[in-house]
């Protein structure tokens, strides 16, 4: 569903991603792990077209080359992105936020029956949003706002959903609910690229894992290969287990 090849980029003269490669298979969930500052959010921004400078590499979404496409064009190709810290319109109602999510399809946007069907699907998936459809989004709890952000991104019917630390700032019980929803979306056939700091929960629902270290892919492989606590500890505590250079990356086998 998504193929990233030799992606290099950054902000102005500051390079933050170095020859990154990863694949998200159709109907599968790829988790991107790594310490703070490893380049995880920058990777999602590069895929979405929000990273200011991508100097090399290629991106393909469902077979289409989106390397030089604008962010709106990438969305029209089937990309959904839920940014960190619940990027919703807090003064708008829940329903207005959902409808805004459908405005990314100019010329063939969500109108009439298609709009009603998308809203109905959102409320079926998120019953608590249906109960609060006329409430300003800023009055929702943190977990409810996260659910709204996900529902908003799903309105156009993306082929690939990217999530940047959806557990951030949430209580453990709400984190479990959010991860249960993400797993259900994957089981329903949606391809997902997940950046997350809650490693155990991410590994529990992931099919594949990519570890970033200082903008490099330091390790990659099936999720079950990362269940070793020593590997997870080294991801976040260091000790240079995942030493990399510009020419090579380590694959967990």
From TrEMBL:
Residues of the ABC transporter domain: 2-239
Gene3D superfamilies: P-loop containing nucleotide triphosphate hydrolases
GO molecular function, one term: ATP hydrolysis activity
Biological process per Gene Ontology, one example term: L-amino acid transport
Similarity comment: Belongs to the ABC transporter superfamily.
Keyword Transport: yes
Keyword annotations from UniProtKB, A to Z: Amino-acid transport, ATP-binding, Nucleotide-binding, Transport
Pfam family membership, one: ABC_tran
Annotated protein name in UniProt: Branched-chain amino acid transport system ATP-binding protein
SMART domains, sorted: AAA
């Amino acid at each position: 569903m998504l193929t990233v090849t030799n992606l290099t980029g950054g902000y102005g003269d500051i390079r933050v991603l170095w020859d990154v490669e990863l694949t998200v298979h159709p109907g599968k969930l790829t988790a991107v792990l790594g310490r703070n500052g490893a380049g995880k959010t920058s990777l999602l921004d590069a895929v979405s077209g929000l990273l200011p400078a991508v100097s090399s590499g290629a991106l393909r979404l469902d077979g289409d080359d989106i390397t030089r496409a604008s962010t709106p064009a990438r969305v029209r190709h089937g990309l959904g992105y839920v940014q960190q810290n619940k990027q919703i319109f807090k003064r708008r109602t829940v329903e207005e936020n959902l409808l805004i999510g459908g405005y990314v399809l100019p010329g063939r946007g969500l109108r009439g029956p298609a709009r009603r069907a998308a809203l109905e699907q959102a409320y079926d998936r998120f019953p608590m949003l249906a109960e609060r459809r006329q409430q300003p989004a800023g009055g929702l709890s943190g977990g409810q706002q996260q659910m709204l952000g996900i529902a908003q991104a799903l309105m156009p019917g993306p082929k690939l959903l990217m999530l940047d630390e959806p557990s951030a700032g949430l209580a453990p019980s709400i984190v479990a609910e959010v991860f249960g929803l993400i797993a259900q979306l994957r089981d329903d056939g949606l391809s997902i690229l997940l950046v997350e700091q809650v490693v155990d929960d991410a590994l529990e629902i992931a099919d594949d894992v990519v570890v970033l270290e200082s903008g490099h892919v330091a390790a990659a492989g099936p999720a079950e290969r990362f269940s070793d606590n020593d590997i997870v500890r080294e991801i976040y505590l260091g000790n240079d287990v995942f030493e990399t250079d510009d020419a090579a990356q380590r694959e967990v086998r």
